[in-house]
Amino acid sequence: MKKNKVKKKLTELILVFAVAVTVFGVCKDFFFSSQNDKVNEYTLTVWAYSNANIESMKRAAEIYSESHPGFKIEVVDVTETDIRTKLTIACVANDLSVLPDIFLMRDIYYPKFVNDFPQIFHAITDTGIEFEKFIKGKLNYSVVDGENYGIPFDNGCAIACYRMDYLKEAGFSIEDLTDKTWAEVIAVGKKVKENTGHPLFTCVAGMPDIVMTMVESCGQSVFQENGTVYIKDNQELKEAIKLYVEAVHGGVIREVTSYNQYIAALNGGTTVGTIKGNWIMQSIESADDQSGQWRVTNLPALNNSCSSTHFALDGGSSWAVSSNCKNFDVAVDFLKSTIGTNTSFYVDILQDYHVVPSYLPAYEDNIFSQKLEWWGNENVYEKIGQYSEKIPVNKNLGAYYADAKEAIGVAVSNIIQKHTDIDTELGFAEETVEFAMY
Amino acid sequence: MKKRNFMKMQNVSGWIFLSPAVLLIIWTRFYPMFSAFLMSFQTSKKGIMIWNGMRNFIRITKDKTFWECMFNTFFYLIIQVPIMLLLALILAVCLNKSNLKFKGIYRTCIFLPCATSLVSCSIIFKSFFANDGLINNILRILSLSPIGWFNNEWTARIIIVIALIWRWTGYNMIFFLSGLQNIDPTVYEAVKIDGANTLQRFWKITVPLLKPTIIMTIITSTTATLQLFDESLNLTNGGPGRSTMSLSHYIYNTCFGVSSNLGYACAMSFVVMSIVVCLAIIQLKAGDKR
Predict the structure, then answer these.
(1) Interface predicted TM-score (ipTM) of this complex, two decimals
(2) Quick one: closest CA in B to A80, which residue?
């Protein structure tokens, strides 16, 4: 009986203690936060996604703090979609105090967010950052109405990667896939499929990345200069989708349902190659047994017309300074003296995290011309640098570019899966985007 | 006089004890609902909400994606709920047999899916039905041609239905079991003497006596299916195209996706809510014949 009572008391005590700890935990921030702010006046909060970006930012802070004692950054790992969700919620809740000082955002979302939520950004136009030294095609995304909202970071230049052992088995060399058009590449792909049983490319179903690179490599947009949607009557887009559908039905492109399956196809050897932003190289390199087998080359062009090139963007991101930044000058100076000018910083992050820069002067360093054993003793980084300078500038981006991309993705999967008519689907896609714009 | 005062005091103290909970519910539930209702008449211009009248609701009538998602959601509802409830009922009747051994183990096993997170359940189903997944590998072993489960709209929808049934049958079975335990065994003895066979006992005794539980499970599963979100997002991500996207998934995308339009998303939520309320009222009325 007595034992029970003691037990009961003990449980009560533990419960009270637990409640007290919780209450203290909740209130602690409330009581001590103002004090904390004063002590770390130089601490910048950064939201970033993916390990390479986070570590690069930390490295940049290390370099900057050498000349600026007391400077610190706190990098918070937030996923790419969560960054956008958090920004949206902060705006709608009308509480911008939750924003960090600097955040990383994918290039394609800049036009949208600057247009919808201009209050989250702090323009960095006339801050001495030499924007003309970055890849023009990429920089363009974070420029809205002549104002710069982001400083370009990683290089999003799309590349085509192929496995030489499979190509050789089918009797082809890398030259058969370099400087070619899509029609020619599809013809090669069909033979490769016949001889090796593997598709030339693998990609994620519903993601129109390849179709968009085809269109953008011609300098074409899915919007017109006056801002109206240009999907239904867009000849380049139509041609691109036709080629893509032909490739899928001919077994040249295999569609998988998730990104994990896509990476599994690359590393597991069930695909001959891929077309993606050059950041995919990190994932390809993770399969140790395939060292020396892969080669990098440029994209197939849409057709033989003079406007179509072999270069386009796919992914990539830029750093933005938020309007909540209390030390705007410090933040800008930090970005300018690391990402904006420091070549040795880019050498560091290339070596350690394989981040390929969009800052063009960095390519003058010898490290970029090194021949990589993994990529068949080729100077792939230099190659990428050369490709990125030739990426056509997409002049008509518009705030609804990401919506258009999504609608095109739906149209493409419907055409492939339901065998619907291309014109009807594109008409529907155009309607969807117009609907979102209204 | 004194008694009345005492009653009054008890009333007051009762309310005082209730008030923290009531205030919390008002603050965390009803206040957001109310502001969402206001927001459904607003739209965002450069990040600031302005009044928009009935335009959000008119917009719903013209939104093809909304109706496509509505079709998907009702497809899940009409196919999944009856199958799941019938299965749950049969399982409950089987497990309610007094002479069955290891009852506890069976019940735990059938209830266990319910304890898994929706996201992990979706991920596991996704890997099962992947192009090189377990199911396709089994098909290959049986020398059948593998199926691109997520590449076809109908197979993708059916996978969602299967995942839902797997996840929720055990949950509803528990309700039926507790309902069955409330049925007096003497009733069964009586019909046995009257010569009713197993099927007759099931349809004539078990089902009518379980009616309150059945109606309750129908209403909860209808509401849950209309709010289906995790499976649509994690299992198929709405694809191929938008052919498996549920209404909640579309609302979420409208809120936090590429084109964020909170006012419109709120308006759609209220349309879904009214449908849920209507269905619940119909089901209650249809089931209540007292």
Answers:
(1) 0.73
(2) B257
